[in-house]
Design brief:
The protein is an alpha/beta fold. The chain has 14 helices and ten strands. It has helices spanning 3-6, 51-58, 81-100, 105-144, 151-191, 195-235, 252-281, 287-292, 296-313, 329-341, 359-374, 386-392, 410-415, 420-429, and strands at residues 11-22, 25-36, 40-44, 66-71, 74-79, 237-240, 347-351, 378-382, 395-400, 403-408. The strands form two sheets. Strands 6-7-8-3-9-10 form a six-stranded mixed sheet, with helices on both faces. The chain is extended and about 105 Å long. It starts with a helix and ends with a helix.
Length: 430
């Protein structure tokens, strides 16, 4: 499917301002991305840049900290709680700085001076350590009469050590004096706090607290809503992980049919319950609808038939009744792909599907993914296989420091990169 045709396709998944924070670390910093039906989007970037977290946020295996996730035009997740929390924390920090005197320009100037002195002191300590080592070695060599070390050399080394010691002592004294000034200026600033500014900040704090409480309430409501529709969302979004995640106590067929059978039986129970409610409370005749529902054995057999069809497709039909522990890494990953396909997803997410494989097994997995791409499956692939991204992807996203730094077709992104960080990244791996 050509790039021009794909751009005319509807947007399947959309994110706006997507953020994710683990503790105090911001992993995603406002991701805006649209994924259209039929697109093959490769996500590349250095380790720890947020690629896998972005992928897991798309199917809500990781709940985002903020932003919007839209699927088929319907909002699946929306929250600005984290943004409101950041504003609240910033105001608290300002009030703390004002009350403690740290907001004083004089205090800030002295703190900058102290920081510079600490940096100098760090280097001075390193030079002292080096000088002391040289003086000690010179004395040892002279005592053992080894090498060409003279008494004068030892004296020079000792003099260098004493000079370095004096420099450290001077810097410590200067730092101590500056710290005393900081303490003094903080005390003075505390006595003369700008009452008007403090009142303004306290009013802003009250408003920020109210906005954060409202956002938190909305966020929790969204989580409850998300919990109600998340299963349906994930049915349409298959995911293949780095490490297969197969159940070793189940056969290959049982691994593949577990989700379709479980959800099929759940759907059957829900439909039967709804029909019986209509019969009981609305006195409707639902005999034909009940008779048309599949039974448990039919659901299981259909799932097994589909599993065998998919196994044959990836050349592993002969492994249907074996346990995962008997398979190679490449075979396990192909089974993991089949397991996701068994749910008939609209989009496939691949999280570095070849990173845990031996080099000789990578090809067989990539070949299966290529076949899916040729058939028009919408895919998002986090990968370090640059040649594969060039060949299969219709778009490539370069993610660094939790942000999409460049988004372009593979020929343009690899052939004429615009972002300096991307140029540096490609120069190290291509």
């Amino acid at each position: 499917m050509s790039e021009q045709i794909i751009q005319q396709n509807p947007v399947l998944i959309s994110t706006r301002g997507l953020t994710k924070r683990f503790g105090s670390k911001d992993v995603l910093k406002g991701i805006d991305c649209d994924i259209r039906v039929g697109e093959k989007v490769a996500v590349i970037g250095p380790s720890g840049s947020g690629k896998s977290t972005f992928l897991r946020c798309l199917n809500l295996l990781e709940l985002p900290s903020g932003g919007v996730v839209t699927v088929d035009g319907a909002v699946l997740f929306q929250s600005d709680m984290q943004a409101k929390k950041d504003v609240l924390d910033a105001i608290k920090a300002q009030i703390k700085a004002l009350k403690s005197g740290e907001a004083s320009p004089e205090v800030k100037a002295h703190q900058e001076e102290a920081a510079a002195l600490k940096e100098e002191l760090l280097h001075a300590h390193a030079e002292l350590k080096d000088a002391a080592t040289k003086a000690k070695l010179a004395a040892i060599k002279l005592a053992k009469k080894s090498g060409s070390v003279t008494e004068e050399d030892v004296q020079d080394a000792v003099a260098a050590r004493e000079k370095a010691t004096a420099v450290v002592a001077e810097l410590k004294a200067r730092l101590s004096a500056v710290n005393a000034k900081i303490k003094q200026k903080k005390a003075e600033a505390k006595k003369s706090v700008d009452a008007a500014e403090l009142q303004r900040l306290n009013e802003a704090l009250t408003q920020a607290k109210a906005e954060y409480a409202t956002a938190k309430k909305a966020h929790n409501a969204a989580m409850r809503k998300t919990g109600a529709v998340i299963d349906e969302h994930r049915r349409n979004m298959g995911m293949v992980f780095q490490h297969f995640n197969l159940f070793n106590n189940l056969t290959v067929t049982e691994n593949i049919t577990l989700a379709p059978v479980s959800l099929g039986l759940k759907d059957l129970a829900a439909k039967r319950k709804e029909l019986l409610k209509r019969k009981l409370f609305k006195h409707e005749d639902v005999t034909e609808q009940l008779a048309a529902l599949p039974d448990k054995l039919e659901i299981i057999e259909n799932a097994k038939t589909n599993a065998k069809r998919l196994l044959a497709r990836v050349g592993l039909l002969d492994k249907a009744d074996v346990f995962p522990s008997t398979l190679s890494g490449g075979q396990k990953q192909r089974i993991a792909i089949v397991r996701s396909l068994a749910m008939n997803p609209r989009v496939m997410l691949f999280d570095e599907p070849t990173s845990a494989l031996d080099p000789e097994m990578v090809g067989e997995v990539l070949e299966v993914i290529k076949e899916l791409a040729d058939e028009g499956m919408t895919m998002v692939i986090v990968t370090h296989e640059m040649n594969f991204a060039k060949e299969v992807a219709t778009r490539v996203l370069f993610v660094d420091d939790g942000q999409i730094k460049e988004d372009a077709p593979p020929a343009e992104l690899f052939g004429d990169p615009k972002n300096d960080r991307l140029k540096e990244f490609l120069s190290k791996i291509l």
